[in-house]
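Tip: read the tokens left to right.
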């Protein structure tokens, strides 16, 4: 099953409720929320209160992508705010196993995010502890960047690795996904499509979600 996760980073922050509701109505599967701390990435975005506010606007699962140093300190806050899926960066913690266990102990889905230059081998020892993997296909920090082509090979390698281990761990891909490259990326092994600017910079965001969802259904 291929899921579509619009990223509200590219939405109008003064109208987040509307942005989330239109995505849900148009058939989105998850709402992707980017949390940036100004340290792990050189940008600042939202915090747990905003996630709690979004929680009240939608029944869809909220997929919180933590681009923060010391993610462990924030995991309980986002859990309380209503995050359903929580991903932490392998580059941001020295205690990956412990942090993933914390997410799972709170009953949330635990994911690891990898920056473009981080090899998939960093996941070897925790693969069995994961509910999903998030492959960054841009250097995190901003929306509307171009997809880094070498990430396609990385997605394929990870897909093959997961299959070889007979695991069922969906691969989420985040950054630079548009209507004209999404099919290739799904073919490579992406099962959760994050789309920020492709949705919210489109003239008709709901139509963009519907088009992505039609591709997802066709390829599921
Ligand atoms: C980037 C964020 C992404 C961002 C993607 O650091 O993690 O989720 O919203 O935006 P697009 O789809 O425009 O590349
Ligand atoms: Zn993201």
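Filled-in amino acids:
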């Amino acid at each position: 099953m291929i899921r579509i996760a619009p990223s509200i980073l590219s939405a109008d922050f003064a109208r987040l409720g509307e942005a989330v509701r239109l995505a849900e109505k148009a058939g989105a599967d998850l709402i992707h929320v980017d949390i940036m701390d100004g340290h792990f990435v050189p940008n600042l975005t939202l915090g747990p209160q905003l996630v709690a506010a979004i929680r009240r606007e939608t029944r869809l699962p909220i997929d919180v992508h933590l681009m923060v140093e010391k993610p462990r300190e924030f995991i309980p806050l986002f859990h309380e705010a209503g995050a359903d899926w929580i991903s932490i960066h392998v580059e941001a913690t020295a205690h990956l196993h412990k942090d993933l266990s914390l997410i799972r102990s709170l009953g949330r889905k635990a994911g690891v995010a990898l920056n473009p230059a981080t090899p998939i081998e960093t996941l070897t020892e925790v693969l069995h502890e994961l509910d999903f993997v998030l492959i960054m296909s841009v250097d995190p920090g901003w929306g509307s960047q171009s997809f880094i082509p070498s990430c396609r090979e990385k997605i394929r390698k990870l897909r093959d690795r997961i299959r070889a281990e007979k695991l069922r761990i969906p691969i989420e891909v985040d950054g630079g996904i548009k209507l004209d490259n999404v099919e290739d990326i799904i073919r490579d092994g992406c099962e959760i499509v994050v789309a920020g600017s492709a949705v919210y910079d489109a003239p008709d965001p709901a139509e963009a979600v519907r088009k992505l969802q039609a591709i997802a259904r066709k390829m599921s």
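The chain has eight helices and eight strands. The mean pLDDT is 98.
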